Amino acid sequence: MKTILVAGAVSMLLALFGTPLIIGVLRRQGYGQPIRVEGPKSHETKRGTPTMGGAVMVLATLVGYLVGHVATHDPMSASGLLVLFLMAGLGLVGFIDDFLKISRQTSVGLRSGAKLTGQLVVGTVFALEVLQHPDGYDLTPADAHLSFLRDFGPAIGVLPFVIWIVILIAGFSNGVNLTDGLDGLATGSVVLVLAAYVLIGIWEERNDCTTFLSRQCYQIRDPLDLAVVAAAVTGACFGFLWWNAPPAKIFMGDTGSLALGGVLAGLAVCTKTQLLLMILGGLFVITTLSVIIQVSVFKATKLRTGRGIRVFRMSPLHNHFDMLGWAETTIVIRFWLISGLCVALALGIFYAEWLAT
First-to-last CA distance in the chain? Predict the structure, then answer.
């Protein structure tokens, strides 16, 4: 527990006091956010706001995790390090994308194929490595199973497992990226999901099969260290949100959104709550579906009638309400509430399953 507190506090302080330093550097270099031409007109005021702030969150998380373990003499774990690798790897992909955008002063960075390739490479390495590194109880960070509240059903095999995990990672990293369209929206929503993973990690540790063998126990490697990772990222998000809240002084960019989406997917894999993440991160699922619906209906109707029909005024979903004239803070707070409801529902299901077994 001390490691959780120290890691979270250190990462929060680093992000809180480090972000304004980065803001100054980015402003001096002229690294401002390009704005989509077809986007809401209200976003024009955001043009030039420093971006790539996600790098602060990634660095604060890594340092917070390291300091937490050094200060408490608590050994690091394979599970925790692999989730941090996933965060840093996807953050690097996002950083390259952000840098290309600001250097070209356009809203287009890496080509979609190149960005997806980077996500696939990092995700594949993670998916293969979580099946390795057994501990003294022969537990690996993950097994080749699907999971909801724990593993279920027979093993699906290494190749199908890797494909599924890569899809999960790409889906959630892009889902957080799509949600990151209004000041503080993605950051605040991710904090709620991360807080849930701190609780899940602690609960799984308290009911670990290696120390508490019963029908209710969990066969998870390093659940407490996964809570440390979640706490470190939560602290970094809190510190960054101080400056990212409306009106934002800095944006996280793809550096932050891809990294945060990767962390959520990594925690889901290693805590064996892969499908539960669909409920925990319900806001990101809804946002992604809004884009899929918009594009699919537009293309289908254009193919049939020659005139595409738009379900929403603009996607992702938050832009639809922006175009309707809702205040940005109203959209952000209400979407945070939706995210909170999804997290509460998922935690209720998680706890109810433990009581029922």
Answer: 27
pLDDT recorded at residue 49: 82
Concatenated DSSP letters of 304-357: HHSS---SSSSSSHHHHHHHTT--HHHHHHHHHHHHHHHHHHHHHHHHHHHHH-
Q: Which residues lie across from 151 on neighbouring strands?
A: 147
Q: What is the mean pLDDT of the chain?
A: 90
Q: Which of 133-147, 213-227, 308-322 has the highest mean pLDDT?
A: 133-147
DSSP string, 150-196: SEESS---HHHHHHHHHHHHHHHHHHHHHHTTSTTHHHHHHHHHHHH
> How many other C-beta atoms can be found within 10 angstroms of the C-beta atom of residue 304?
10
Do residues 90 and 262 make contact, with C-beta atoms less than 8 angstroms apart? yes
CB neighbour list of residue 200: distance below 8 Å, 6 or more residues apart: 223, 227, 271, 273, 347, 350
Q: Which amino acid is at 304?
A: R
The neighbouring-strand residues paired with 50 are 32
Residues in contact with 154: Cβ distance below 8 Å, sequence separation at least 6, in sequence order? 145
Residue type, 19: T
pTM of the complete model: 0.93
The helix (run of H) or strand (run of E) holding residue 147 is strand 146-147
Q: Burial, 195: exposed, middle or buried (Cβ in 10 Å; 0-12, 13-18, 19+)? A: middle
Would you give the DSSP letter of residue 136? T
- CA angle, 93 as apex, 275 and 277 as ends, to 5°? 10
Element (H, E) at 146: strand 146-147
Q: Nearest CA to 243 among 14, 9, 7?
A: 14
Sign of CA dihedral 161, 167, 170, 171: negative
**174-196 pLDDT, tens digit each:** 999 999 989 999 999 999 999 99
